[in-house]
């Protein structure tokens, strides 16, 4: 089923979940995301998400159980249902709607909240049976998409930077030995919402309405916690995130005793590989999207590609330790 055909069917399921008695309401339907790998619609206070084709039902069910765990009620938004349902060959999950970060007000971005949430997530013992964090898999898929887009003048430095990453960051080898943490796997500001007042309360430690929570458990799993800090680290190293905002985020993470970086001193030795991988992933997706649309890279996208071009095979020799 195409994305276009899926949207009305998914919307009908969202309405049915919001009004199980069959009643009607005046609330409009809203399409929040319309992509082949994830289609999301909202009706009233209910959000329905159709996950990517081929999603493992057992793995998704396990991830939903983690999000519904009362121990993580102050960190992850709890689902309405603890198991996905099938819809025309897609797995669908249901969630309460929470207000997202305002993309038009970057100065109000809650970097302290992001750092604190990640620290709490990473300090949580990894639940039994949880699949690996899928961050490196997503990076590898971005490279596959870049290659499928055909020749592009900006592709060479991105592919070169990709080839210089260790195998684990390319999803070609197991993650390095060492303690595992409970990781989000795809952390960015779009993965935060404010807890709605009528959301399910999973336990006595649940935050008050309006508190920030993490959403999207598709990539949740056991892994290297530095991956969850890698996107803001990469933005900072590329000059796209101001130093003050990066320090707000990093300080909040350290204040929360997050294990991904040392409690003080230079964080870059711990973050370098993951930050490079996220830089490459971002550049690869930018090129693929621009190639499909037949348009040139914009200034921000070019900055990420330029960062890939500056990467060398010796991360520890980088002046800032980051992907520059």
Topology:
Elements: H1 3-18, E1 29-35, E2 38-43, E3 46-51, H2 57-67, E4 85-87, E5 90-96, H3 111-123, H4 135-148, H5 155-163, E6 181-183, E7 192-194, E8 212-214, E9 221-223, H6 226-237, H7 243-255, H8 268-293, H9 299-310
Antiparallel strand pairs: 1-2, 2-3, 3-5, 4-5, 6-9, 7-8
Helix pairs in contact: 3-7, 4-8, 5-8, 5-9, 6-7, 6-8, 8-9
Keywords:
9 strands, 9 helices, globular, alpha+beta, Phosphorylase Kinase, domain 1, five-stranded antiparallel sheet, Aminoglycoside 3'-phosphotransferase, Chain: A, domain 2, 324 residues, two-stranded antiparallel ribbon
Your description of this structure?
It is a single chain. The chain is α+β, with helices and mostly antiparallel strands and 324 residues long. The protein has two domains: 3-96, Phosphorylase Kinase, domain 1, CATH 3.30.200.20; 106-317, Aminoglycoside 3'-phosphotransferase, Chain: A, domain 2, CATH 3.90.1200.10. 39% of the residues lie in helices and 13% in strands. The strands form three sheets. Strands 1-2-3-5-4 form a five-stranded antiparallel beta sheet, with helices on one face. Strand 2 (38-43) and strand 3 (46-51) form a beta hairpin. Helix 4 (135-148) packs parallel to helix 8 (268-293) and helix 5 (155-163) crosses helix 9 (299-310).
